[in-house]
Amino acid sequence: MPGFELIGKEEKKQIESIFQNGGVLFRHGFDNLRNGTFKVKEFEEKFAKKMNSKYALAVSSGTAALRVALATLDIKPGDEIITQSFTFVATVEAIIESRAIPVCIDIDKTLNMDPDALEKKINKKTKAIIIVHMLGTPCNVKVIKKICRSKNIALIEDTAWGIGASVKNKYLGTWGNIGTFSFDFAKTITTGEGGMLLFNDKKLYKQAAAWHDHGHENNPSVPRWEDTRSSSGFNFRMTEMQAAVGIAQLKKLEFIVKSHIKNKELITKKLSKFKNIEFREKPENSIDSAEALIFLVKNKYLAIKCRKALLKINVSTKILPEATTWHFAKHWDHMKELKLNKKNKNYLKVSNDLLARAVSIPITVNMKKNLPSQIFVALNKVID
Ligand SMILES: *Cc1c(COP(=O)(O)O)cnc(C)c1O
Predict the structure, then answer these.
(1) How far is the CA of 178 from the centre of ligand 1 (A)?
(2) Among 10, 26, 80, 231, which is 20 to 30 Å from 283 by CA?
(3) Looking at ligand 1, which residue's alpha carbon is closest to its atom 7?
(4) Ligand 1 first shell, C-beta below 6 A
(5) Could you identify the atom of ligand 1 that is nearest to the CA of residue 183?
(6) Ligand 1: which residue has its CA nearest to atom 2?
(7) What digits encode the pLDDT tens for the residues 289-330?
(8) Is the model's pTM score more than 0.90?
C-alpha cells in the first residue's frame, strides 16, 4: 500500500528547503525571492525522466489530471468517451465535466477493460478511450493501443494505480497519448493531494499546461501578468509544498513497488494451496505495482465470507468485495449523466459476475512476517 507508510524525514527535509529558500509556495515567478528553488518544475522533470517520457505536468489531483487530459481533445456535443466499468467514480466524473458522454464497458479477467468489448462499442461518436490499470495490474494495453491506432482514437491511461508497473519494460502511463497519475493519500506515492500527466507530444503538453493554468502560455518574453493566452482554462496547479513531498516520495517508488511485489508473492504462495480459487490475470510480459492480491471464489456469498474471515484477523479487504458502490459503474444511479442500460439484462453482466466473487487483499510495504500464514489460516476456515 501506499507511500504514506513511508512518510518521513526525507519529505520533511524537502519541505524545509522551500522555507530555507524564501518560502515561495507558487510554481511561477518571484525569482528574486526563491534562490532558484522550483519544486513543481523539479518534480515534473524528475517524474518524466523516471518514466522515460518527454513531458510531465503536475496538477492538483488525479481527477484534475484526467480533466486536463480531456481538455486537449476537441470535444463536441454528443461525443462519447469509453472507459471501463471497474474504476473509481473520478474517471467518469472527469468525462462528465468535459461535456462528453461517458460509456462504461465490461472488463475481462484482468479486471480491466476487455478489448473485445471495446471493439464492439467503438462507433462514429467515440472520441477517446480511457483505460484504467485498476489496483496496479496492467490492462491488455498492447491490444487496446492497437485498436485505438487502427481507428485513430486517442488513448488516455488512468494510471492512478499502476505507477511503477510496466508492460514489456515500458511504464504504464506512457503507452497512451496521455497518462494520468494520482498522488492522493491512498495511492502508491502521495503528496496528500496531487496528480501528474505524461506526454510525448509537445503540442498536447503545451495545450494541457496552458489549460490547467487559465490558458497561461508562460511566455518567457513577458512578465506573467502580461502573459499571452492560448485558450480558456481553469486552475489545477500544484503547489510547491505538494511537489516537495512528491520529489521525496518519487525516490521511494522503486523500493515501494519491489516490496509490494515481494510481499504479494509471499501471500500468493500460501493461497496457491487453494485449488478452488482463481487469481486475477495479468497480461504477458507485465509487471504490476502489486497494490492488491485479487482472487476469485465460486460465488458472491463465499467472497463475503472471505472478507469476514479476514476482518477477524484485522485484515481489511481493499474495494472488493465491499466497496463496489464507489468503484463499479453499475451502481452509479446518482450520476444522471451516466446512462445505465438497466433494461438490458446483459448490461455489465460480465463485470458484475467477476467483481461480486472477487476478494482483494491490500499489500503493504511494512508487512508483518507471519501475515501470509495468518491469512491462509483465516481463509482456510471458509474456502474448501
Ligand atoms: C484515485 C483515483 C483517481 C482520482 O485521483 P484523486 O487524486 O483522488 O483525484 C482517478 N482514477 C482512479 C482509478 C483512482 O483510483
Answers:
(1) 15
(2) 80
(3) 62
(4) 61-63, 87-88, 90-91, 132, 158, 160-161, 182, 184, 195
(5) 7
(6) 160
(7) 999 999 999 999 999 999 999 999 999 999 999 888 999 999
(8) yes
Q: What φ, ψ does residue 110 adopt, rounded to 5°?
A: -80, -5
Cα 279 to chain center, whole Å? 21
Report pLDDT digits (tens) over 41-61.
Answer: 999 999 999 999 999 999 999
- Residue nearest atom 5 of ligand 1, based on CA coordinates: 62
Mutational test site, ligand 1, from 63, 87, 212, 332, max ligand atoms within 8 Å of CB: 63
The cell 491462509 sits on which residue? 376
What DSSP string describes 184-249? BTTSSS--BS-EEEEES-HHHHHHHHHHTBTTB---TTS-GGG--B-S---B-BPPHHHHHHHHHH
C-alpha cell at 84: 471501463
CA of 182 to the centre of ligand 1 (A): 6
Grid coordinates representing 82 are 469509453
Pocket test for ligand 1, best of 59, 182, 185, 320 (most atoms within 8 A of CB): 182
Length of the chain (residues): 384
One-letter amino acid identity for 101?
I
Distance 134 CA to ligand 1 centre (A): 10
Q: Which residues contact 311 (CB under 8 A, 6 or more apart)?
A: none
CB of 205 closer than 8 Å to CB of 199: yes
